[in-house]
């Protein structure tokens, strides 16, 4: 599957800006990890892009609609990773791609949430600040902290280093992601 096909599939099912941005941020982080780990950036990026593609249109069937579509297209590796991107679904995390998607999904959303509440957004955001926010159960309460920790563990990375890597992967795309510093000048 090409990136263009993945984008068309995503846009067919997903219309909301927030979920589209989440798909893009997970794509960026997955591509960065693929390059770091000598994996296929197209496969990893498209998997990140499509992992929640059916969530908005079919929330009670998520992720079955997108995984069925991918399987029909012969994209079993992507389908398997997407079918297990939440550990409570009970799908085994066998490949590096499976582990990478679980490891990047929740924490990438959390990093973006941390950036959004700062005037500097991604600029100067440090892993220690994100770790501190993780301890605040009321902040981005929908983010499953257990999934965040399990994801880093499955990937075999230190959580602070993982967060720093995600921040670094997103920073060059701050403008596209609407995460540039907010001007605080008063006229």
Descriptive labels:
globular, 187 residues, mainly alpha, 0% strand, Hypothetical protein af1432
Question: Can you give a write-up of this model?
Answer:
Residues 20-90 form the HD domain. It comes from Rufibacter radiotolerans. InterPro entries: HD_domain. With 187 residues, the chain is mostly helical. The protein has one domain: Hypothetical protein af1432 (Orthogonal Bundle), CATH 1.10.3210. It is built from nine helices and no strands. It has helices spanning 3-13, 17-36, 41-50, 64-72, 76-83, 96-116, 127-134, 145-155, 159-170. Helix 2 runs antiparallel to helix 3, helix 6 (96-116) packs across helix 8 and helix 7 crosses helix 9. The longest helix is centred in the middle third of the chain and has 21 residues, at 96-116. It is globular. 40% of the residues are buried. The model has no long low-confidence stretch (mean pLDDT 96).
Fold blueprint:
Blueprint: H1 3-13, H2 17-36, H3 41-50, H4 64-72, H5 76-83, H6 96-116, H7 127-134, H8 145-155, H9 159-170
Helix pairs in contact: 1-3, 2-3, 2-6, 2-9, 3-5, 4-5, 5-6, 6-8, 7-9
Domain HD: 20-90
GO molecular function: hydrolase activity
Organism: Rufibacter radiotolerans
